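so the lab meeting is tmrw and i was supposed to have these ready like two days ago... anyway. pasting both below. for each one the top line is the aa sequence and the line under it is the structure tokens. i havent really looked at them closely yet so no promises
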Amino acid sequence: MKPQQGFRKFVNQCLHSPSSRPAKFVNGSLVFLIIFSVSVIPLHFLPDVAWAADYLLLFDKITVTIFTIEYALRIWSAKRPFAYIFSWWGIIDLAAILPFYLSGIGILKNPEVFLLLRILRILKLGKIYEIERNALADCADSTHGDFHTIEGEKIERVVQKHPVLFLAKLSMPLAMTTIGLTIIIFFQANIWATAVAVLFFFFSAIFFFKAWLDFNYDVIYITNKRIVLQDRELFGSITNDISYESITNVKPNNIGIWHFILGFGSIHIETAARKGSLEFHEAPKPHEIVRHISENRQKAIEDKKANFSDPQEP
């Protein structure tokens, strides 16, 4: 493989099918940049921030440059570039940078409209979620992240948290970043105000990192032999391996108006083992997932019965 083809394949994996660690780092950095670029928008509407205008403009130029490079690399590395350009997600990528260029050439002259159009960048979070979800659906049969299959096992489905809840969790780091920047602008050189602002930035990073871990690593792996529940925390993770034969009952729960409207809920798994009952919360389409697990469980029970009741030869 030529070096250029190898690099193009690497870029395609990072931006279109992010299953490797470098790819997840790239997408995590893009999510953080999106949050930060949206969180500074309210600062433009605050009074007495003229001294910070040059810094905000410089930050926006850097952000647009990164998003423009990302957009160009997505087109270059896509298997079907024109299909990507005219796709919904391609249009969102273009909308994230277009207002800046339209304002620069004088077509978009209203600064308030320009700033409001920049909020369209928040839609890129949905795009990154969709790409990550597709990467999970297309993951290799033998491994995904820290999960590895056993002999003769195949991953049939990987269940993540509901996308709306993922986006909702990102509102906290966005708000904290905005508050921290506002404190710095109003109190400028005050050391105590700066310390408080840094504290807001710290908690913003913690909330962001936790939401990103929940998004990528709080999953259910459904295979043809077992299910594996992985719960990732800031420091360490818990993994529960459950064979289908040990499951005594599995049931969904989407009681509640928001659960019903948005289509998410919890999955309750009862086992005969010491670990007893296990739950996975905020799962999309819980009834469909439970049906999949129940079908695999029934098949495993039938296969086990068949192995113990081989017909006697005459």
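ok protien two:
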Amino acid sequence: MTQNHLRLGVNIDHVATVRNARGGAYPDPIRAAKLAEEAGADGITAHLREDRRHITDADIDGLMEALTVPLNFEMAATEEMQKIALRHKPHAVCIVPEKREERTTEGGLEVAREENRLAHYIAPLRDAGCRVSIFIAADQKQIEAAHRIGAEVIELHTGAYCDFHAEGKFAERDRELKALREMSAFAHSLGLEVHAGHGLTYDTVQPVAAFPEVRELNIGHFLIGEAIFRGLVPAVQEMRRLMDEARG
């Protein structure tokens, strides 16, 4: 794998959302993860929410046992989630903001205001060998705080950029893309590994994939939706193709 290779992490949360709508055993998120792996995913992302609205504890158990690619374990900065992460010791943990009333993650983590708490929170995770990522907005203050607390990775929230594109607000979209580009370069200059994700589609992925500092994109909801029409393997393969094309 070349240094220029842009990794694709496939988030399988919403396979579990469909399963949980009926309370049964299918579709199976672990089967989806294996198919994504077969299609060229470099890793699997799963968010174990406090309310267990999609991924469950049993799913995390199964993923840790079944995967041959790394698991990126998304979680809120709570004592319960820290204990689960320390038990499993996944390749990576991504600390995300979480509110019970939200439909999906609504922005980046506020690191600067909680710097001391988060520094102490992530220390045991790092000591256990997990790569710690912080999911944040493209904001210099938050990136600097993530660097100070000892995070190795940041994941930039691309949701606003994607929303503006979908709404046809192209001036706002381009302004957000410029901020993402500049903050990717800034984070890289601090020695942070840069990831990005949230809301990316076939139409929006390439400008972000072209940023040379970005090492990984995490994409889920769109791919699970697209899989309804073309199948999960072809859906992931097309995203992989577009990413590689953008990377040149």
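from a quick look at the 2nd one: The two ends are 14 Å apart (CA to CA). The domain at 7-247 is CATH 3.20.20.70 (TIM Barrel). will dig more after coffe
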